[in-house]
Amino acid sequence: MNGRDMNTVNIVGGRIVDSTTDAQGRPADIHIVDGRIAMVATPGATLPAAATVLDASNAVVSPGFVDLHTHLREPGREESETIETGSRAAALGGFTAVVAMPNTDPAQDSRAVVEFVREQGRRAGLCEVVPSGCITVGRAGEHLVPYAELMKSGVTLFTDDGNGVQDPLLMRRAFEYSSDLGITMAQHCEVSRLTAGAVMHEGSCCSHLGLPGWPAIAEELMVHRDIELVRITGGRLHVLHVSTARSVDMIRAAKADGLPVTAEVTPHHFTLDDESLRTFDPVFKVNPPLRTMADIDALKAGLRDGTIDAIATDHAPHADHLKEQPLDAAPPGMLGLETAFALAVGELGMDLRSVLACLSWNPARIAGIGDRHGRPVAEGEPANLVVLDPGAAWVVDRGLVASKSRNTPYHGRSVTGRVRHTVSNGRAVVIDQVAQR
User: Fold this and answer.
1) Domains of the chain by range and CATH?
2) Angstrom distance (rounded) from CA 137 to CA 297
3) Is the whole-model pTM more than 0.85?
4) Residue of 314, 351, 371, 397 marked active site
5) CA–CA gap between residue 384 and residue 7 (Å, rounded)
6) 314 is catalytic
């Protein structure tokens, strides 16, 4: 078999669901050569021979998922995750691209660090790793980064994730650059003066437990501020991990006004509420915190009506010795890449195509990689694909996750919907739920 034959994959027996189909999709077999879809044939047609044949019987073939919000920890915090282990978890979760958050050490505020992350992704990744850039130098909120320089390294999305930019004048200047350069500012919305020492949502549960509360208004004030800054600057805003009902309302109103505002929600924010903290288990500590059932209902409604564009994992691995500290000392964050699809399918009450839009082509557009991810499953398109079994039942087991860390809040939970195969840039990187390296 020659080298060209080794770059061939056939996907047989599935039905395609993508941005061009309805929720039922269309049956088809697919032939992939050298990273691109070379043929989409009616079932039963003869495909050219391929080095790898993937069974998609009783399954759905979709454009691969794109995560707008992944913490890969490298460089600087490799004890919790690396680009290799994080991208393996991503591939097992059906993701063919992840946006790497910049709260690394050193932070992704220079071309050198951005290019290191991208190159590590090329060298060790099982999916495409797309570096984000910081909004401010060192994520310190004092000086803007050189946006034009970072754009030369392919950065189009900028965020100080983990830190909301507190200075409104500095943020106004960032949005002015956003308008001029066509880049997106992704904001972690938190007024830090209102959250000092807080460990969970401020409400009846935190009062009962005697824990410092994290008020919803801390998020909502910054959402409001940044929407109004977009209104006067024409900049582009992406709201990270929306968690409150009033935030959803403000984003809905901004979109109705025609403002360039997009938003994401995490699976844990639409599946877990603040009552989870009654156990004092740090695995349920996250930033922003788990909110109330009323907030969860609003987040789900926002996904269903298109107010919220994307499901993003905020995959935040932490080594055991860090996460198993007392609740007030433990860092916030949860794993999310391997469970996102199942939780979305099982919890949202949305048809499959709508779920896939939030996991694939919508985030691809926001990330600026819609030329190669989230594409229709059609001849000539890049072969970034996932084969899904929406009816597959399984139990989450923290001992079996691919991430280097184990801090999943879903251990022992029965879920439905699983990734069978993942094809990244024409390579079968997951086959029958097994990562190929």
Assistant:
1) 63-367 (3.20.20.140)
2) 37
3) yes
4) 314
5) 14
6) yes
